[in-house]
Amino acid sequence: MKISKGSVVLFDYTLTDDDKEIIDSSKEEGALTYLHGEGQIVKGLEKAMEGRKAGDAFKITISPEEAYGIHDPAKIAVVPADQIEGGEELEEGMQLEASHGDEEQVVVVSKIEGDQVTLDGNHPLAGMNLHFEVTIREVRAATTEEIEHGHVHGPGGHAH
Q: How many domains does the chain have?
Protein backbone atom coordinates (compact mmCIF):
# COMPACT_ATOMS: atom_id res chain seq x y z
CA MET A 1 0.00 0.00 0.00
CA LYS A 2 1.31 3.44 -0.93
CA ILE A 3 1.17 6.36 1.50
CA SER A 4 -1.69 8.74 0.78
CA LYS A 5 -4.19 10.83 2.75
CA GLY A 6 -5.79 8.55 5.34
CA SER A 7 -2.82 6.19 5.63
CA VAL A 8 -1.37 5.30 9.00
CA VAL A 9 2.42 5.27 8.71
CA LEU A 10 4.96 3.75 11.12
CA PHE A 11 8.53 4.87 10.46
CA ASP A 12 12.01 5.06 11.95
CA TYR A 13 14.01 8.24 11.59
CA THR A 14 17.13 10.10 12.56
CA LEU A 15 17.04 13.89 12.41
CA THR A 16 20.28 15.86 12.20
CA ASP A 17 21.25 19.51 11.76
CA ASP A 18 23.63 21.03 9.20
CA ASP A 19 26.60 19.99 11.37
CA LYS A 20 25.38 16.35 11.34
CA GLU A 21 24.58 16.53 15.06
CA ILE A 22 21.65 14.30 16.00
CA ILE A 23 18.63 16.35 17.09
CA ASP A 24 16.19 13.46 17.48
CA SER A 25 15.97 9.78 16.63
CA SER A 26 13.39 7.02 16.89
CA LYS A 27 16.16 4.80 18.29
CA GLU A 28 15.41 6.17 21.78
CA GLU A 29 11.62 6.59 21.64
CA GLY A 30 10.68 3.89 19.15
CA ALA A 31 9.20 4.26 15.67
CA LEU A 32 6.85 7.18 15.06
CA THR A 33 3.26 6.62 13.93
CA TYR A 34 1.16 9.33 12.29
CA LEU A 35 -1.98 9.80 10.19
CA HIS A 36 -0.90 11.02 6.75
CA GLY A 37 -2.54 14.19 5.47
CA GLU A 38 -3.32 15.64 8.91
CA GLY A 39 -0.22 17.84 9.33
CA GLN A 40 1.10 15.76 12.24
CA ILE A 41 4.69 15.84 10.96
CA VAL A 42 6.52 18.74 9.32
CA LYS A 43 5.10 19.69 5.93
CA GLY A 44 8.25 18.87 3.93
CA LEU A 45 8.58 15.40 5.42
CA GLU A 46 4.90 14.64 4.89
CA LYS A 47 5.27 15.64 1.21
CA ALA A 48 8.33 13.35 0.91
CA MET A 49 6.36 10.43 2.39
CA GLU A 50 3.54 10.71 -0.17
CA GLY A 51 3.45 7.69 -2.51
CA ARG A 52 6.10 5.68 -0.65
CA LYS A 53 5.53 2.21 0.80
CA ALA A 54 6.69 -0.05 3.64
CA GLY A 55 10.37 -0.92 3.26
CA ASP A 56 11.29 2.33 1.51
CA ALA A 57 14.30 4.14 2.96
CA PHE A 58 15.41 7.64 2.00
CA LYS A 59 17.29 10.75 3.07
CA ILE A 60 15.88 14.24 2.64
CA THR A 61 16.77 17.78 3.69
CA ILE A 62 13.79 19.94 4.65
CA SER A 63 14.16 23.73 4.46
CA PRO A 64 12.92 25.91 7.35
CA GLU A 65 9.97 27.04 5.21
CA GLU A 66 8.79 23.41 4.94
CA ALA A 67 9.59 22.63 8.58
CA TYR A 68 9.27 24.98 11.58
CA GLY A 69 9.53 28.27 9.69
CA ILE A 70 12.04 31.06 9.55
CA HIS A 71 13.28 32.46 12.87
CA ASP A 72 11.01 35.46 13.49
CA PRO A 73 12.46 38.34 15.58
CA ALA A 74 8.88 39.54 16.23
CA LYS A 75 8.37 36.44 18.40
CA ILE A 76 11.07 37.59 20.85
CA ALA A 77 10.22 39.83 23.78
CA VAL A 78 12.23 41.26 26.67
CA VAL A 79 10.15 41.65 29.84
CA PRO A 80 10.85 42.41 33.49
CA ALA A 81 11.13 39.21 35.55
CA ASP A 82 8.52 40.49 38.01
CA GLN A 83 5.91 40.36 35.23
CA ILE A 84 6.38 36.59 34.91
CA GLU A 85 4.73 34.24 37.38
CA GLY A 86 7.59 32.52 39.25
CA GLY A 87 10.00 35.07 37.74
CA GLU A 88 12.45 34.73 40.61
CA GLU A 89 12.99 31.02 39.79
CA LEU A 90 13.56 31.35 36.04
CA GLU A 91 16.51 29.71 34.33
CA GLU A 92 17.73 29.99 30.74
CA GLY A 93 16.30 27.19 28.61
CA MET A 94 13.06 26.88 30.63
CA GLN A 95 9.82 26.58 28.68
CA LEU A 96 6.84 28.64 29.81
CA GLU A 97 3.27 29.03 28.62
CA ALA A 98 2.42 32.58 27.65
CA SER A 99 -1.06 33.96 27.00
CA HIS A 100 -1.89 36.44 24.27
CA GLY A 101 -5.62 37.12 24.55
CA ASP A 102 -7.27 33.73 23.99
CA GLU A 103 -4.11 32.10 22.58
CA GLU A 104 -1.62 30.01 24.56
CA GLN A 105 1.95 29.82 23.30
CA VAL A 106 5.04 28.03 24.54
CA VAL A 107 8.03 30.35 24.91
CA VAL A 108 11.61 29.63 25.92
CA VAL A 109 13.60 31.74 28.36
CA SER A 110 16.55 32.44 26.08
CA LYS A 111 18.43 34.98 28.23
CA ILE A 112 18.33 36.50 31.70
CA GLU A 113 20.18 39.77 32.30
CA GLY A 114 19.56 41.26 35.71
CA ASP A 115 15.81 41.60 36.04
CA GLN A 116 15.24 41.49 32.24
CA VAL A 117 14.12 38.18 30.73
CA THR A 118 14.22 37.41 27.00
CA LEU A 119 11.37 35.14 25.91
CA ASP A 120 11.50 33.46 22.49
CA GLY A 121 8.27 32.18 20.94
CA ASN A 122 10.01 30.64 17.92
CA HIS A 123 10.07 26.85 17.71
CA PRO A 124 13.54 25.66 18.84
CA LEU A 125 14.15 24.29 15.31
CA ALA A 126 12.92 27.43 13.48
CA GLY A 127 15.37 28.66 10.86
CA MET A 128 17.12 25.29 10.62
CA ASN A 129 17.51 22.87 7.74
CA LEU A 130 16.35 19.46 8.94
CA HIS A 131 18.15 16.38 7.59
CA PHE A 132 16.02 13.25 7.89
CA GLU A 133 17.05 9.65 7.36
CA VAL A 134 13.83 7.64 7.18
CA THR A 135 12.83 3.97 6.93
CA ILE A 136 9.13 3.26 6.50
CA ARG A 137 8.19 0.16 8.50
CA GLU A 138 4.45 -0.11 7.99
CA VAL A 139 1.63 1.51 6.01
CA ARG A 140 -2.04 0.70 6.54
CA ALA A 141 -5.41 2.27 5.91
CA ALA A 142 -6.70 4.32 8.84
CA THR A 143 -9.88 3.14 10.53
CA THR A 144 -13.04 5.23 10.24
CA GLU A 145 -12.62 6.21 13.89
CA GLU A 146 -9.00 7.32 13.36
CA ILE A 147 -10.05 9.50 10.41
CA GLU A 148 -12.95 10.99 12.41
CA HIS A 149 -10.67 11.74 15.38
CA GLY A 150 -7.76 12.94 13.20
CA HIS A 151 -5.14 10.76 14.89
CA VAL A 152 -3.90 7.18 15.18
CA HIS A 153 -5.27 4.87 17.88
CA GLY A 154 -3.53 1.91 19.49
CA PRO A 155 0.26 1.31 19.56
CA GLY A 156 2.15 4.48 18.67
CA GLY A 157 -1.05 6.54 18.72
CA HIS A 158 -3.63 7.63 21.27
CA ALA A 159 -5.20 4.82 23.27
CA HIS A 160 -8.98 5.15 23.63
A: 2
